[in-house]
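Researcher: Next sequence.
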Amino acid sequence: MTTESSNPTTPVRKGEDLDWPTLDRHLKSVLPHLEGQAEISQFTGGKSNLTYRLKYASDDLVVRRPPFGTKAKTAHSMIREYRIMKELKPVYPSVPDTLYYSDDESIMGSEFYVMRKVEGVLINNQIPAEWNFNLEDTRRFCTAFWEKLIELHQVDYVKAGLGDFGKPEGYVERQVSGWNRRYERVITPDVDHFSKVRDWLVASQPNDSTHHSILHGDYRIDNVILDKENPCNLLAVLDWEICALGDPLMDLGNSLAYWIQDDDPPGLRNLVVQPSNAPGMLTRSEILELYQDRTGIDTSSFTFYHVYGYWRLAVILQQIYFRYFHGQTRDERFKTFGIAAQQLGEHCRILIAS
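Model: Next structure:
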C-alpha cells in the first residue's frame, strides 16, 4: 500500500517569520553536514508551538519554537520536548531523531530545538480513501494506535534516564489545581467561569495512583506519523510539549477527550480532529477495556478522568483563544476557540450530573 505524504506545509504565516539568515548560519555552525540554501515552510498543523520545515540539500529538518506573544509561565518548554525524545529514543523508538537544542534567544527570540523530519503519513479527520480500509482494517489500525500509548505507559522511565524528569507523586492534585488556576487567568467575557466544574474536580480527585508512567499529554491520531506502506505501523509520535510523569489514567483521559463518537452531542462532534468516528473504530468503552486488558490497571471507574480530560482541553483552547481575544496572535484559526471551550465546559457539567 502506498500513499502520498500528508504532513503539509505552507509559506510561513504572516507575523511568524524568523531571522532566517541568522538561523541558517547558526545551524550550519552546529550541524556542519548541512549544505545549500534551505527551502523554508511552515507546518499547517498544531495550534500552540510553531513548527517550521527547513529542507536542505543534505537533510530535512524541523525547527520548533514557542508561539509569539504572552505565554503561560511554565508552558511551551522546548527543553522538555527535546529531552524526552532524546532519552526515549533508545527504549521507545517511535520518536523523531533530535539533533540540537539552544536557549540562545538572540538567534530567533526564544529557545528552540531541531529534529529530523520523519518521512511518512500524517492524517487528520478522515481515513484516506486510497487506503481502501474495511471495518477490520480500521479496527486493526485503531488498536495499533492505542497500543502505542500503552507501550509508552509501560516504559521504565527510571532505566530510560528520566527518573528526574518530574515528580509523579501528587500529579493528579497538581494537574487539577494547575489547570483551574490557568483557566482563572484566561477567562474572557464570552465564556462561563465554570466554578462548579472546577470545584467538583478538586473534591472528586482519586487518591494518588500506585502506577506511574511517562505521559504524553496530547496523544491523538493527528500527532502520529504513519508508515506509508503500512499505516498500522506507527513511526513517530509528535508534540511532546506537555509530557510528564504521573498517573497514566490521566493521560488516557486526555486522549479520550479528543475521541469523538457519532453518538456524542453536537458540541463535541464539531471538535473532531481525527477519524475517531470512522466505521470500525473502537468506542471509548472498548478502549478502556483494551487498556485494562493490556496493563492490568482498573478502568471501571473513569468519570473523574473523563471530566478532567474534557476540562483540561477546554482550558488549553481558552488559553489560545485568550491570546486571540487580546490581539496577541492574528491566526484566524483561533477565532472560535472560545466557543469550543464553552461547549467542553458544558459537557463536563453533563458528565458530573449523570
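Model: The beta strands are 9-10, 39-43, 50-55, 60-65, 98-102, 112-116, 213-215, 224-226, 234-237, 244-246. Residues 303-325 form the longest helix (23 residues).
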